[in-house]
Structure formats: structure tokens, C-alpha cells
Queue: 2 jobs
Job 1
Amino acid sequence: MPQYDYDIAVIGAGAAGLTVAAGAAQAGAKTLIVEKEPAMGGDCLHYGCVPSKTLIKSAHIYHQMKQAARYGLPEVAVPAVDFSRVRERIQRVIATIQPHDSPERFCKLGAEVAFGRAEFLDEHQARITTNAGEVRKVSAKSWVVATGSTSAVPRLEGLDSTPYLTNREIFSLDSLPSSLMIIGGGPIAVEMAQAFARLGSRVHVIQRSPQILSREDADMAGLVQSVLEREGVTFHLGTELLRVRDLGQEREVDFRAQDGMETSVRGAALLVALGRSATTRGLGLKNAGVEIGSKGISVDARLRTSQKHIYACGDVTGAYQFTHAAGYEGGVVVTNAVFHLPRKADYTWMPACTYTDPEFASLGLNEKQAQKQGLDYTVWTEEFVENDRSQAEEEREGRIKLLLDKKSKPLGVQIVGPHAGELLAEWVAVLGGKVKLSTLAGSVHPYPTLAEINKKVAGKHLSEKIFSDGVKKTLKFFFGFKGRACGGEPDGSR
């Protein structure tokens, strides 16, 4: 049997790679982690989830400061934002979390950490070029590619000669841009649009699709858009990007609008947020015989590449580009590569959340996906305006939408509303645990809470059966009920 330097080697120290490394090292496997950046934690910690949610919170508080009168409080003069202080807070939060992803912690777990680049020489060997310039060859019985993704940059006339921002630069600006143009209409684009608009920037969103959050149902995405528009964000949807220009103090974007007219927008800064591209360049995957698909490294249900001892997980596969998905996939890899127990990734109930205000959280199928699959379904909704906690907190925007198949089994849930990501957690447990909707509908929720909306929509379709004409006739026959005392229909509230 060949002798290898390591039992398992992991390329990439983001959420997926660190999950694999931690599990493998604690299980007793000799483990190597190779990370090209000077610090571990991946994009999520340094340029993604953590800094974006920290910025969003600062923008939310500033927005609340300007909304004092809405809560019956005295209006106050709110000073302009000093973005350098916001930036300092972002870095402070990152630094607080960083030790959890530090080399010291993983060394204690038993994994070796090397900062540098890895390039496959064959299916088991790789050349490691450290950031200090040292070069060595290593071999491993199993390899894991978890190199994540980078911001997708379009082929657009003038972009290569025009300064622009991506998620790597947007959180470390020296000052707040007076105006910001955003190319793209996905989660990153709309989150940053609202955050910078709330902080005081004039924001334009230029999107190729006729709606923002184009994978979502139009009615739900429209709820988010309407809020952002009221807060000052200008949307240019269904556009054809033509070119960009550097005007010195400003940038200019030319595009063809839906009416066919060529239009230009100028701004102090330009953010490119057109999705993510799998990071595969320079890995020597061809040398290892690893196949790359149109979106990223091709894997099977057990996250094995075309070489069964080489796994890929996280953004680099191009599938579900969420930090929580990367962590989940890392666990699947550990089960297969370390414990040698066959385990397949199951994305049926993979949650997602866009952290606008209101948030947009989803689980399972939406209407677009159900229609694409040719499924028969019914839609059940509840509005947050009918929720008493929403009324008390002046957070009345949004709704919950539940899709049921023809057998009344859940297909998916979408929530646009306050703390939608937190509210979705109950559905993750219910649907992932195969809990009956009748159980959720019959459960007791504290009052008043936003989570009551989950109970209410779960019970809504049940109430049609419970309070049907047939049931009323049966009760009248057996118990002599006299019928309604007043006219009208019951509203089913509380």
C-alpha cells in the first residue's frame, strides 16, 4: 500500500474546509490545511457574511435613529455618518470571531496549517508554495478542494479601465460614497443597496432581470423592492448593460432600458455584484484528473469528484453558495472520507435568507420551481400586518407563503418580514423532521410573538376542513346547534 504524507489534505480554510479539517483531525486523521490568504476563515468571515451583517446592523440602527417619531418619541437631529467608524466596527467584529478560525485552534485539534497555494501534480501529490516562498511536495490519501468562490466580473466595455468595488473592497472604504451604483440584483446587491441608502448614499441598482432576486417569486421579491424604493433606492430593471466609464471623480454606466432607450447613470462609486464564480484557477485540477463543470467542480451525491478520493465542497462546486451549506457539505465529506460511511448530500430543505429589512427567507420550493417541475400545489398566506407583535413593533411589511402539494404536504415556505431568517428556523425543524402541519398548528406559541404567523398559516388550510359545511351539518345533527348568532364570516384570528 502506498505511503502518504497525510491521511487527508484540505485546500481552502473557509467554512467547508475548516469543517472537514476539524472533523478529520479530531477523528485522528493526519490532516493538512492549505490556505492562500494570510488568515483563515474564508470570504464569509473577511469579505462576506460577517462584515455584511455587521454593516447592515449599523445601517439599521442609523435608520431607526431617524425614525424616532414613528415610535412616539421626539424627533432628533441625526448627524452624518462617519464611515471610518463603521469600518472600524466591522474590523472589530471580524477580529473577535477570528480566533475560532485561527491556526492555533486547529493545531490544538491536531491539524497542520500551511499558508500558501496548492497545485496538484497528480491525483495524490501537490506542490505547496508557501506565502514565504518555500516550496515542498506533499501527498495525501484523500484530498478536499474547498477553495470557495470569487465575485463574478462581467465582460463589459470599459470595466477593465474603470475603478470598481466588489465584496472584497466595499467593507473597507475610507468614507461613505455620496452615490453608489450597483450592477446586479441578487442578495448581495439588494443588501448593500439598502444598507448604503440608509447610511446616506444615493443608490441606483441596475439589473438585467426584470425583477430583483430573480430566483424568487415575483410577488415576494416585490415586497422587498417596494420597501427599498420608499427608502430611496432607484431600480433600473430589465436592462442591457452597454459600457462603463471612468470620469475621474465619478463613474458612469450606460445601459439600454426596457423601453429600448439608451440611458446613463453616474455615481461616485460602482459596485459589481453579479453573483459568484467558483475558484478553480491555478489548482492543477487537470493534472489530478478532476473534471470541472459549467458552474464549478463536478461532484456526485457524496461530494466525490471524478477522482473518488478527491472531494469538493462549498462554493467551489457552484451549487448552494451559502456558508451554512458549506458547513453541511463539510460534514458530508467527513462522513465519507474519514469514517468511510456512505452519506449523500440532501438539499431538499436547504434554507436561504437575504438580510434586507424586511428579511427574505425561503425553504424548499417556491412557485417558480413548483411550476417548472409541473407540480400541482395550493398557496396559503398570512400577512404580517395581521400579527400583533408586528403592530407593536411597527414592523408590518411582508407575508408568509406556504406551498402545499395536492396531498396537503408542504413543498416550501417563503417569508418576507421582520426576522424572517429566525422564523424560518421553526420550519427547518418541522419540515426536516417530518413533523405534521397539524402538530405545528396545534402547538402553543407565546403571545405576542412574530412566530405566531407560522402557527397561523399552518392551521389555515386545516381550518377549512375542520369548519367545513359538512362538519357543521354533522354537529348540528348530533348536538342540535342552532347556527350563527350574527351575520358575516369568522376571521379566524387569535
Job 2
Amino acid sequence: MIALLAPFFAGPLRPFGERLAIAGEGAVQPSPLAAAALDRQWAAGCLDRSARTLGCDDRRALAAAWFRDYTLAVLPGALAAAALHRRSLPFGHPGVSWHGAADGRLASLVLPDAGKPQRATLAAQLAPLLDGHLPQVVAALAAAARVSPRLLWCTGGVAAAGVARQLAAHPALAAPQYVERRAEVLAWIEHAVSADGFANPFHGAFRPGAGPEAPGVVPVRRNCCLNYRLPGEGQCGTCPRVAGARALNAVGSGLAPATAAAATTP
């Protein structure tokens, strides 16, 4: 874990911060790969190990689950560093190294340093991750699994929305001086492009009018994450398949709640 962020990721939040590290800080997993090596062959190897671990050969479902886990591994630290410390973690540095676990997922992503404080917007500070590192990972996974990048971004985007809202509600951002930063975090996840022109590829994971910010409406994702195809898993609470059936039942009963329109919107 990055020492600077350790106080933020205390207790039950520790898993969301422990897979980002700084070179020279703490133990490092074996078998590192340079960031430049995160290509289709690398992604195929990760999915092969995940397939053996889970006993599943559905590459599309494995890729979606893998990217959801990767989002939860790298985004919380990047967001916390930007919102709390105004630091942009150097995901684009050539010295970044990727360390894999036996199950094919990320064990740790080791950065050369924790960046430097800078006067920039949240979106600008996240650019090394969102404009460079994650698109590279998505392209590699999409090629290895023959899956649409949009499915991966949607699956990661649902996780990202949860991360952003939990960060905004964290006690560390409860002080009055952080009001603007909390608002900036929520604005980032709710807009496709920031005011200063940075795109957010995680945006648009939910159907219009059925996002988690809509009061009284059950969130519905744009694309099914295929989680139900994994052994021992079922359909999630934001599944468009479940929402569609729920809306049809509501219409058939004559209730036609507000959620029905959102659930059937493409």
C-alpha cells in the first residue's frame, strides 16, 4: 500500500488500497512485468490463469470480472490521492511494474513514486490512469477475450461509480475545507467530459435516468456484466435482464412505476 494513502484505507477499506505500491515501500510480489508489456499475450495469460482458478472457460465473462477487479484495485488509490492530496499518481511512467497473482488477477501495481502535489483539476490528475494505463489494459483484454471494450468499460464503470460515491462519503472528506473536492469527485463520475475537457471512459455505465444518483429509481447498467456465467454467481442487482423482467411485470400489473421506463430504455 502507498504509505501516503494508508490512513484513508484503514480497517475494512484496506483491500481497496493494498494493491497499489511505491517502489521500495514494503514487500513486492515476484514476476514483475513492465507496463509496456501489458499486451494481448499478457491478457490471455491472465485469463488462462483465471479460467483454471474458477473452472470456467467463458472468456467474455472472465474478462469482465477481471476488469471489474482491476478497477477496484487501482481507481480508489488514484481518486484518494487526487482528492485528498492533489497528487497525480504516475501510471504512465515507464518504470511502472505489474505483478500478477496465481489466479491471474493483479497482485500489485508498483509505481516509481507517489507523484507531486500540483494545482490541477481532479480530471487532469486522473489522466495518466484514464487516458493511458486503463485504455491499454482494456485494449489487451478486449483482444484476448474477443469482447467489446464497451462491455469492459461498463463493468468497470459500475464499480467506479461505487468507488466515487464511497470516497465522497468518507469521513476524511467530511471537513468543510473538502466540500469542493467532494463535489468534484461526484461531478467527475456523473459527466462524460470534465469542464476542462478530459473524458471519463467510466461514465455512461448506467442507463439514462437509471443511475445511482436518481432518487427512487433502481440503478440499471447499460450492459450485462455476464457475471451469471461464472461458477457460483448469479445476476446482480443492476442487471438489465432482471430490470427488463421487473418492468414488464410492473406494466402487466398496471402499476407502471417510474423504474419501468428507465429499465426499458436502451
